[in-house]
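Each field is set out underneath.
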Amino acid sequence: MNRLEVREAITQAHHEEWARVVAALTRRFGDLDIAEEAAAEAFATAVERWPADGVPPNPGAWLTTTANRKAIDRIRRENKRGDKQKEAQTLYDDEPPEPLGAIDDERLRLIFTCCHPALATETRVALTLRMVGGLTVPEIARAFLVQETTMGQRITRAKAKIKAARIPYRVPSTEDLPARVSGVLAVLFLVFNEGYLATGPDTDPVRHDLTAEAIRLTRLVRALMPEDGEVAGLLALMLLTEARRTARVSPSGELVSLDEQDRGAWDAALIAEGHRLVRERLAAGEAPGRYQILAAINAVHTSAREARDTDWSQVVALYDQLVRLDPSPIIVLNRAVAVAELDGPEVALAVVDRLEDRLAGYHAYHATRADLLRRLGRSQKSRAAYDQAIELAGNTAETAYLTRRRDQLA
């Protein structure tokens, strides 16, 4: 195996095994800092040793074993510097296991720990992206539109709070699940979005490892709460979005917009499963939540044989319903895209322009505005808007798409 193949194997192992290694160490040592640092050291050791020794038959087991040794070494060093006898004793004593939650899954335990209500919502998301998704601090900072130092401090404080407050590392009991699950769903949704259109300029534009992990964990949450409409809605939304993944980026690495995608390349099985979940929720007769409405919007899109067959009046009606639940500027922006198809770009542009103060730093705002101006024949203003979108976009495929659209202007 040459060095390039080894490097690719390490990258794949990081995508597939990071969360498992961190979760296993958190379970054993009860400390996110130790788990994260030891996991990082294990991967660094792999970078040093695998080119010479070869990729082990079971990379995950090798990394977990190496990380465990790194953690033990760290605790022994700290034990020499201070009174750490009780902590060090956990290396040798077999303590009775804690009661398991409804599902015994290490990564699900890790998510519920990172999503504990004692932490602020944005901190839960950031911590989960770091500890479960394995994203770097710069990648997470870009997702939150904040400075790297700010994000690093936020994650550090979150881990310290978990340790100081003795937040348990477990899946909540059945009685506590309803109150805790909404925060977990919000985190899983952002993890999925980061995978579906990655923000890092040096990462793959679509990270299947993150989308697959978000879907897997959402399936587990659905097994915990099969009657919860929002859990089913989020799973349906992810499946209907994931179904279009392979058609999302061209062979040359450029983003392909929904209206230009090869619908024959969509995953029919995922679409069928997503549609079934949407129909089940409609048949339940309950008022839908945010994820159920988003899933229904995606069901309309994936039901159309061609882009021109899309029922835009239904899409706008669903967005009207969603805006009543979540009047965030991003939802209003997405609704404006549908309004442009139904009522024309002039009407939509008036809506978009009112969002400038709230979305000036958001690349999709400028990209949407650029497209509407292009359709109205205002090439100079459209070009300026494309320039702003390109400057703010972090995804390589999206940047390539926006650049081509800008360069096509007269």
About this structure: Residues 88-103 have pLDDT under 50 and may be disordered.
